[in-house]
Amino acid sequence: MKENFNSRKELTDSMANAIYHGEMSNEKIAGLLSKLNKDSKSPPNREAKTNEKKVGIFTLRNIDGENCFVRDQKFKADFPYWNKTMNVIKEKSPKKKRVVLLGESVARGWLYEPLHAPAEVLEDILHQHFSQDIEVVDLAVTSINAREILELCEEALALSPDAFVIYAGNNWKQSVIACLTDAEGYEIYRELVSGKPGYAVISTLVSKAFSRMVDIFFIQLKRITSGRNLEMVFIIPAFNLMDFQSSEIEKEMFMPNLKARAWMQARAQGLNFLEKNDLESLAKLAQELIDLNSFHSLGYEWLAKCKLAAGDLKSAKKLLETACQTAIYRVTSTSSRFFVGLKEPIVKNCHANKVHYVTMDEVFEQHLNGGLPDRTLFLDYSHLTIKGIELSMIACAKTLIKAWSGAEAEPQIDSYEIKCDPQMASTAHFLAAMHNNLCGQSFEIIDYHCRKAFEYDKRILSKMNAYIRMSLSKTPWKINKESLAFVGNNLIQMGMFRYEPHAKIHSALLRSIGKILRENNLAEDLDVILLEEHTISGEETDLLTTKYAADSMLCMTELLAKEKGFYSEIKLESKFYFVASFQHSVLAKLTYRVPGGSADKIKLVVNGKLQVELPAHPKWSTHSFDIPLSDLQSGINELSIHWVLPSSGTGKNKPMTSITDLNEVISPVLGEIQALSVREEEHLLSKPSINNLSEVINIFSGEEIERDRSGDLFVEGEELII
After folding, report:
1. Residues linked to residue 559 through DSSP beta bridges, in sequence order
2. Which tops the pLDDT comparison, 360 or 573?
3. Residue 634 has what pLDDT?
4. Within 10 Å of residue 294's Cβ, how many Cβ atoms?
5. Which of 705, 273, 310, 219 is nearest to 507 (CA)?
6. Pairing, β 560-561 against β 566-569
7. In angstroms, rounded to a whole number, what is the distance separating the alpha carbons of residues 54 and 152?
8. What spatial distance separates the first Cα and last Cα of the chain, rounded to whole Å?
9. Sign of CA dihedral 205, 206, 211, 212
10. CB–CB of 501/477 below 8 Å?
11. How far is CA 645 from CA 110, 246, 475, 592, 715, in A?
12. Which residue of 63, 136, 296, 608 has the lowest C-beta tally within 10 Å?
C-alpha cells in the first residue's frame, strides 16, 4: 500500500509542476488521470464495488434468455439519486434507435419526475417528430460530478446507444477547483494575503482551470467513444439570472484583506439607496463595491438592477453572469450553478470533437424575446419548470433529428406542449418554495411559489396548514399528527421531510404560508400554537438549535458542528429568535470567543436595541445580561450578535501548506459560540396569557419584524488597511 501511495504522490506532484509550467499537454494529463482513477475508490454512497458488468445501479442479468440490466439491491443506498421507476433496461431492439441521457438533477427533472422527466419528454417528442422508433434511457443522477459522468458514459456503451445526450455542468465547481495545481493555489493565496489581491491575476488562473477541466473532460469523452458510431449532444445549462439572487451569507463581506470597512460603509449606503429606490446613486455605489472587492457578488447584482431599470439587458446579463460566477471564489457552500466561464471552453471542445451542442441561455433568451431567464423557466437556481423542461428537450430533439437526417435546417417542433397534472404542478411549486427558503431567497420569490402552488390546486391549502403547524411544533414530523395530511401525497416521496431540520419559528416561508392561510380564514390559532410551544420560561431555552437560528441551510454551513461542539460564524451578524410572553424581563447567557481577538467590542442587540458590548477575547468567556421588559415584544423577538472585523491581515505571515489554507483568508471565522440561552427571570406559575393576540407580533402577516435601523454598527472607526 505504501509503495502505491508513494508512486501516486510522485506522479501527482510531477503532473502539478508540469501543468503549472506548461510542460504537459492536456492529452497527457488526461491519460495520467485515467491511470490514477483506476486505483481510486468511488466516493461514499456512490455505487458499491462489483466485478459484475453494470451500468450505474443496474447489473447485467439474463431474464428469459434476454440480457438485461436490472436495478440491483446492492446499490439501494443510491436509488434516491436515480430515476424512480426504471427497474429494467432491456436489450436494445434492432428496430429502435436508443438515446442515453446523462446528467445531473436538472436532467432528472427534479420535482416533476418521473412523469415529466426530461428523458420521458424527449422520447415523446422524438416519437412525434422522427420517422424511426426511439427509446430514451434515463441515466441522469442527482449530484453526479464530471468524473462520474465519464465513468457512466463508459459503462453505458454496454447499452448499444445510438446517441449520448449529456446535460451537465451545474456540479462542476469542485472539478474546476481540483484542476488548480498547488502552484496556482499558492499564487492565489499569495495574492489574497498581500492585502491588495489582483482580481485580474486570480480570475485568469481560475479561467485557466475552467479551460483545463473542460479540455480534460472532452479528451476522456473522446477516448471513451472513439470508434463508436453514435451522435453526441451536449446541453449547456443556464442559470436563473433574474430571480435567484445571492443568499444572506453571500451578501455579507468576505475576503477581509480587502478594504473591508470601506466596503461595509458602502454597503450600508447602498441599502439606504435601495430603500429609497434611488437607482442613480445606487449605480455609483455598486461600482464602488465592485472596485473595493471584485470577488463579491453584491456590487454586480446592484449594478445589474440599475441596468435593468434603464432597459440595458445586455449589460445586466453580463453583470448577473459575473455575480453568479463569484461563487467559484467562495469556500462555503453555495447553490449549484453553471459558471459562464465554462461555456466558451465547452463550445470550443464541441466544435473540435464534432459534438453537437445546445446552449440553454440562448434558447431561453429567444423564448423570452431577448429577456433574461427567470421564474417562468426555473424553480430555483438551476432546476427547471415544466416550460423550461419543454424548451430544453425540444431544442435537444431538433439537434438529434437534424444530425440523424443530415438536413441543413432544423425541424419545426413548435407545437409541442407538456400537459402537466395540476396537483403535480402545485406540489412542485410548494416544494420549490421550501427549497428557495432553504437557500436564503427573498420573501417575494418564496411567496410567488406558494401562490403558484395554490393557483394550480386549491387543495394544497390543507398541506400548507399542516406544514406550518409541524414547523411550529416541537414534535418530530414523522410522529406529528399533522403529518397525516400528507399520506398518499407525493410531497413525502419528493423529499419534503428533508426540510425538517431547517424548519424554524420565523422564516419567509412561514410568513408566506401564514398570509395565504389567513386570507382563506385558516390561521386563527397559529399565534396560540407559537406561544404555547415556544414561550420561554424560567428554564433555559437553547438558541443554538436550528429552530431558533435565523439562517437558511446555505447560510448555516459553519453553524453548529457537532464534532466541535460549538457554533462558528463567518458572517458579521448572527441572528436568533425567541418567543417572550411580555410579562417578565429576560436573562440571556452567552459563552463565546473571537479567534485572533480584537480591540473592538462585539455588540448584542435585541429587536434593534443595543443591550451590551463585550470584549472580543480570543479565549472562551461567559457573560450574562438582562433584557428589560421595555426592549421586548410579545411573540417573536430577535437577538443578534454583531461581530468585529479582523484587526490584522488574516494569514498574512503564515505560509500556505495546502489549498485549504485559502479558507481562513477568504471566509475567516469571526466568532464562535459554545452556548447561548435565554430564560425568564421569574418563574411563571401558569401558562402565559394569550387572550390579547393583538399584542402578539404576527409572523404570519407577511411582514418582517420591525428593527431599529437608525445606524450601522460596523462603520465607525478608521479604515482597515492591510
Report:
1. none
2. 360
3. 87
4. 20
5. 705
6. antiparallel
7. 10
8. 46
9. positive
10. no
11. 40, 21, 39, 16, 10
12. 63
**CA separation, residue 514 to residues 472, 519, 521 (Å):** 12, 9, 10
Query: Which CATH fold topology does 96-174+214-240+337-405 show?
Result: Rossmann fold (3.40.50)
Residue 692 in this model has a pLDDT that exceeds 50: no
pLDDT of residue 249 exceeding 60, the answer is yes
- Grid cell listed for 652: 498574512
Task: Give the span between the Cα atoms of 67 and 158, in whole angstroms.
Answer: 11
Q: Which three cell numbers stand for residue 563?
A: 464534532
Q: Is 489 exposed, middle or buried (0-12, 13-18, 19+ CB in 10 A)?
A: middle
Say what angle helices 199-225 and 343-352 make with each other, to 10 degrees.
30
Residues 557, 563, 569, 575, Cα dihedral to 10°: 80
Does residue 516 carry a pLDDT above 60?
yes
Strand pairing report for 586-593 and 621-627: antiparallel
Tell me the pTM.
0.86
Give dist(CA 134, CA 161) in Å, integer.
Answer: 11
Phi and psi torsions of 333, nearest 5°: -65, 135
Backbone phi, psi, residue 389, to 5°: -60, -45
CA 388 – CA 238 distance, rounded (Å): 10
Instruction: Name 621's bridge partners.
Output: 592
C-alpha cell at 183: 502552484
Instruction: Using alpha carbons, select from 121, 124, 162 the residue that is nearest to residue 140.
Output: 121
- Domains of the chain, by residue range, sit at 2-40, 96-174+214-240+337-405, 260-329, 422-524, 541-695
CA distance 350 to 41: 30
Asked whether residue 211 carries a pLDDT value surpassing 60, the answer given is yes
Q: Say which residues have a Cβ less than 8 Å from residue 103's Cβ, sequence separation at least 6.
A: 140, 141, 144, 149, 165, 166, 167, 168, 235
- Whether the Cβ atoms of residue 119 and residue 137 lie closer than 8 Å to each other: yes
HSE-up of residue 244 (Cα within 13 Å, Cβ side): 30
CATH number of this structure's domain 541-695, picked from the four choices 1.10.10.10, 2.60.120.260, 3.90.79.10, 3.40.50.300: 2.60.120.260
Query: What are the pLDDT digits (tens) for 576-634?
Result: 999 998 788 999 999 999 988 998 999 999 999 999 999 999 999 999 999 999 999 98
Q: What is the identity of the amino acid at 404?
A: W
pLDDT confidence of 114, banded at 50, 70, 90?
A: confident
User: What CA–CA distance (Å, rounded) separates 384 from 107?
Assistant: 9
Contact criterion met (CB below 8 Å) for 436 and 691? no
Alpha helices in 293-373 (DSSP H): 297-309, 313-325, 343-352, 360-367
Placement of cell 471566509 in the chain: 667
Helix (H, G, I), strand (E, B) or coil at 560: strand
Which set of grid coordinates corresponds to residue 306? Answer: 440599475
Residues 512 and 700: beta-carbon distance below 8 Å: no
Please report which confidence band the pLDDT of residue 708 belongs to, taking 50, 70 and 90 as the band edges. Answer: very low
Contact by Cβ (8 Å): 79, 57: yes
**Phi-psi region at 565: left, alpha or beta (left = phi > 0; alpha = psi -120 to 50):** left
Neighbours of 394 (CB within 10 A): 23
Helix, strand, coil share of the chain (percent; to 5) = 45, 15, 40
Helical residues (DSSP H) of 67-181, grouped into ranges: 105-108, 118-129, 146-156, 173-178
Which superfamily is assigned to 260-329 in CATH? Answer: Tetratricopeptide repeat domain (1.25.40.10)
Q: How confident is the model at residue 513 (pLDDT cuts 50, 70, 90)?
A: very high
